[in-house]
Amino acid sequence: MRLRACAALLLFLSACATQAPSPAERASRNPRLANLQRAAVLPWTDGGRCVVREASHPWPLLVEKCYRTLDHDRLEFHDTTGRCTVASADAAAVGLGFCVLEAPEIAVGAVIVLGMVVVGVAIKEALDAYELRHSYPEEAGTSRGTKVTSREAEAQRKPKLKPEPAGQDWQPPVPPVPVDRTGRASCEPVPVPHAGEDDPHNECADEFPPNRYPGMDVLVGGVRFDALQVGVRVLWEIKTHRFDTYSSFIQRTEIEKEIKQLLEERRVAQACGYDFVVGVSTQAHKDALQRRIRTLNIVITGCKR
Q: Per the record, where are the segments of Basic and acidic residues compositional bias (predicted)?
């Protein structure tokens, strides 16, 4: 009897030791998450898009970049600690509100919000995307019981005999996606990790539209898109080629390949009720695509490689 009791106690202690970290613990380990949660209690005139774009920076830098997008009519700032009074020169330069808000820990009563705060749509979607990734660390997302492959599996790619001019457009095999009752690929968007490790391309896809799921591509209708734009039903394909530096032969080859890809992506997006936009880095790339298909919606992002 005593042996059974000891075994039960050991099992209980083991379960306690392996419990998932609390939201507060996860935030302390993830500065981006902590910034999003901190910003969620403040009113933003842009729905929090600036916050989502700058959330990876330290909080004072985020405040500096996004301070103008706060709804100042609904905020009152009080220097309860005297810190901003002491640093009067700096406070005068940037304003009392900025000085109070950028503090590592905002004192109680230092910032008063008038009225009820509704979390900005961009911040809410970024927090939801983080929770999705945390809930399914090996699968990045599920929908209707269908698993999506892990980042490691997606990042695998076969060796090539010769390099291609733009590696960011290689895409691994599309993982299984939800299907509707007819057996066809579902139009429900499913976030999955960005394909590959092309950081400049991924940063452009996250920040320019901006992406509803930062750090993620999205599967719609069985096709992988670089971004689903915040707040609207618009799917994006991002190109960050150094197109202007290619030879004429390579440019023609790339355009032929891209046209096939973009037409298929636009067909799927429109069939699922989404608009489709292509983001390119240069005017030359846009002109080359539109000479072939004038109806493509193409935007110059200016993103660098």
A: 149-163
Who has greater pLDDT, 231 or 144?
Answer: 231
Mind listing the pLDDT tens digit for each residue in 228-241? 999 899 999 999 98
Both tokens of 290, joined, read 């539109």
Cα–Cα distances (Å) from 54 to 4, 41, 61, 153, 237, in that order, read 54, 17, 8, 29, 22
Phi and psi at 130, nearest 5°, equal: -65, -45
DSSP letter (8 states) at residue 139? T
37-46 residue pLDDT tens: 988 889 998 8
Residue 188 tokens read as: 């429900």
Q: Are 193 and 10 in contact (CB under 8 A)?
A: no
d(CA 160, CA 169) in angstroms, rounded, equals: 14
Report whether 42 contacts 75 (CB < 8 A).
Answer: yes
